[in-house]
Amino acid sequence: MTAERAFSQISGLMLSALQQAAGAREVVLFTYSDKPSLLTSIASNGFALMPDPAIIPMLPKHVHALSTARGPAVVEAGSHDAFLSSNGNVAPELFRCIAPLKVGGKLVGVVALGHREGDANYDAGELEALDLLCHYVALAIHNQTLSQTLAQRVSENLRLMASLHGFYDNALEAFAIAIDVKHVNIHGHSLRVGRYAAAMGEAMNLETSEVAALRSAGYLHDIGKVAVDKRLFGKTTSLDAEEFREMADHTVVGHRIVSGVQFPWPRIPEIVRWHHERADGSGYPDKLAIEEVPLGVRIVGLADTFDAMVSERPYREPMSLGASLSEIVRLTPLKFDPNVVQALLLQVRRDTVGSNRTPFLEARMADTIAAPDVDHLAASLQHKVTRGRLFLT
Ligand SMILES: [Fe+2]
């Protein structure tokens, strides 16, 4: 009973053990549920006419009698009503002996025996053997009920989580739009970074929940900019040291903001803080090297850079898609994680051959690069990372 088996197998084994212990020809095993108060058969053997499942509704007096019975009881003709009602689809008169199954004093099921071999009566010896076995059978049934309830609760929670994720997604989209309001020139930046990051995570075969986390982290990565002076966003000249420090602070401020929020994804605060870190430690605010930042940070960091390059800025025209990707490849592995860059190239390539269900790029960029150009970039990145060496195994 304690081995890893399907419950149907276990109940079959329990039936034959009970049958042997009591020398019974007929046996049926019921589980008890209290809402509504019912016995439902889960396995039976030997009875000529036993519905599957056999169901016996219970009155409080029956439950009380079974819960307080001291072990298995022989039921004489005419005394069945003390333990079982006759309102179910099986006649209680079929049973000669009834053994309540209890765990911690609570009724969890019933074993009911019919005729014995040779039609003999159940005597003290059989009742004692039955009593001993019933403790184990009761535990097995109780465990089964618990795990069924648990499975039900888990699936309910998952459904709830899924609807919450949908809710979070919508709420965070609204946040992303609000964050970009100050950035007159790059409307939709946070939304695009969220979408790019999620698509790159998908290209890297990350789990669905991690992809959802990347999308949310992308939406929120610049949330600290709500605290940056609006004037800095419209500047057409480069920022002076003080202004740069104020702008760079959006990572730390953002981290402080999201650290106080209980997100369903624990990695959001670190992504918000570190999305400007670069592989060689030249980024900010903590000057971390590539090994020190988790994959999600590298993905959102690249998605952010990519969108910044292909978007118009107050101080420059947007770069073309091809030039942006070449520049990113040129800066890899110095600044970016080569695997993440390959994921970006893969998504762009899928757009060029039309194999993305939802296009990765915005329509204005879609036709500006061809698949062989992307392949060329991917190959040259690969060559650079392996320094042209061939690894033969
Ligand atoms: Fe940023």
Number of E-type strands: 6
Order of strands in the sheet with the most strands?
A: 3-2-1-6-5-4
What is the overall number of helices?
13
User: What is the CA-based Rg, rounded?
Assistant: 34 Å
CATH superfamily (homologous) name of the largest domain:
Hypothetical protein af1432
Portion in helices: 40-55%
The fraction of residues in strands falls at 5-15%
Compute the average pLDDT: 88
Summary, kept brief:
The chain is of the alpha+beta class. Helices cover 49% and strands 9% of the residues. Helix 5 crosses helix 9 and helix 11 packs antiparallel against helix 13.
Helix and strand topology:
Layout lengths: L6 H16 L4 E8 L2 E9 L9 E3 L2 H9 L4 E2 L22 E7 L2 E8 L10 H56 L9 H15 L4 H13 L20 H8 L1 H10 L8 H7 L20 H16 L10 H10 L7 H15 L10 H4 L4 H15 L8
Antiparallel strand pairs: 1-2, 1-6, 2-3, 4-5, 5-6
Helix pairs in contact: 1-3, 3-5, 4-5, 4-9, 4-11, 5-8, 5-9, 7-8, 8-9, 10-13, 11-13
Bound molecules: fe (ii) ion.
The site of fe (ii) ion has 6 residues, from loops.
What does this structure look like?
- With 393 residues, the protein is α+β, with helices and mostly antiparallel strands.
- Helix 4 crosses helix 11.
- Helix content is 49%, strand content 9%.
- The protein has a 6-stranded antiparallel sheet, sandwiched between helices.
- 35% of the residues are buried.
- Strand 1 and strand 2 form a beta hairpin.
- The chain starts with 6 loop residues before the first helix and ends in an 8-residue tail after the last helix.
- The model has no long low-confidence stretch (mean pLDDT 88).
- The chain has 13 helices and 6 strands.
- The protein has 2 domains: 145 residues, 2-Layer Sandwich (Beta-Lactamase); 203 residues, Hypothetical protein af1432 (Orthogonal Bundle), CATH 1.10.3210.
- Bound molecules: fe (ii) ion.
- Fe (ii) ion (FE2) binds next to loops.
- The site of fe (ii) ion has 6 residues, from loops.
